[in-house]
Amino acid sequence: MALVTICPGCGTTFRVSAAQLQAHSGDVRCGHCQRIFNGFATLITVNESAIACPFQTQPQTVSEPEVAAQSQACAENINNAVDQSVITDRRQETTETSDQLFGAQAPVKQSQGAWGVANVFLLLLLIGQIAYTYRTELTIVAPQIRSHLERYCALIACTVPYPQDIRQLGIEASDLEKNPVRQPEVATLSAVIRNHAPFPQALPALQLSLLDAEDQLIASRIFTAQDYLQEEDKALQFIASQHEIEIRLDFFSSDLGAASYRLLLLYL
Question: CB atoms < 10 A from the CB of 27, how many?
Answer without folding.
Answer: 14
